[in-house]
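The instructor's notes for this session suggest beginning with a concrete chain rather than abstract definitions. Hand out the sequence below and ask the class to guess, before any prediction is shown, which regions might be ordered.
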Amino acid sequence: MSTALDLAAGTRRVRGLAATNTRLLLRNRLATFYAFAVPLLALTLLFSQDPAQPGAGLATVATVLSMALLFPVYYNLLSVVVTRRDELVLKRLRTGEVRDGEILLSLALPGVGVALLICLVTMVATPLLGFSAPANVPVMLLGMLVACTAFVALALWTAAWTRNAEAAQLTSAPVILLTMAGLFRVVLPEDAHDWLVVLPGAAVEEVVQAAWFGVADDGSQLALLETATAAGPGLAVLVAWTVLGLSLVARSMPWEPRP
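After discussion, reveal the predicted structure:
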């Protein structure tokens, strides 16, 4: 009984804090612009493509989802954590009944919600524009959730060595560049491809290729069950980044301002 009561109380605390954080996000016009406009602007690239071409829209959808992971999830959370840390908000929250995990979850939920909303909008928009609808929706949504968790972990880890909110523009660059390098690896030297597949952006594109477009590496169409198998390596890479990020966060989570 006590466990159930604790869980219910924790859920209420997370819901209340997440609602507050969502309102703060929406009041910040610049953060809201980056969260919504940047991914959705990438979606407009579909208008310049021919749906009849093989694999049409794949790179665009992967880019839209990567932007949704980088801006509302990663960069927004990084900025929020650093700002709240420096304002001693995190320290004050820890002195009450709110647990550490509840604080972090409530900070991450608004950005994750925006990313999932953008994913759903893209799922509706692509078939309306003549492109492929997701071949395996459950696997695609699972991949997006795992990717969100990975980028949340990376944001919290980046916050550990970010001195202030202004510095986040620089400290976020490695994760952003690595994600983009994996996403656009096809334009890089072929010798580097085997190394780039372990980057988050490459993993997102691999999941999109299999679970959304149902296409194998050789261009052949995949059956429903085959899409889940083909998405496996990309999901495994995202899980690995999640585990790595969370292990680093456990050692270095910045609850108080840096000296």
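Then share the key points. The longest helix spans residues 58-86. The chain has one domain: 2-252.
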